[in-house]
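Changelog-adjacent note: as of this version, every example in the card shows the full chain rather than a window. The one below runs 163 residues end to end.
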Amino acid sequence: MELSLYRTPLFEKQLKALDKADKKGAQAAERAAEIIRQLAVDGWQCVAMMNKRTKRGELRVRKCLKYDLGSGYRLISLKRDSELFLLYVGTHDECDRWLNKKRGIKLQVEPDSFIFVAENGETPSDCLADTLVEEMVDEYEEQLSAKLSDPVLRQVFRGICER
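Full-length structure tokens:
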């Protein structure tokens, strides 16, 4: 059975924030990316994927699979038929709080609101989206800096600037 893998935009942000965090966070982000690649290729039933799951499983949310990223980090996913939804990634405590908030709730997930993950573990539009966002940010920064003159900045930050 082939597995369709999806992740949320929030998951993407969490993974990028983890990668930019300290050394352990960056290692956890790399392990998460490797797990995503392996899941995309081999599915959740392969022995390597089963060994990366947490030892105690997860009882708070039905059909939830939790993966141990090491150094106190976890990846939380939800299995539905031949689909796996990557929902949350973070420290053990953050994941624990997230799961406690979701306890007893039947999570409704629809592929339309998720980003499809290709077999190489990347989202098809990753590179294009990053480029477009960077271009938009640069253009926005230019527009802002054109509108902000020295007198306006001095007025806004008058408590900080000397007069």
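Structural remarks: The two ends are 70 Å apart (CA to CA).
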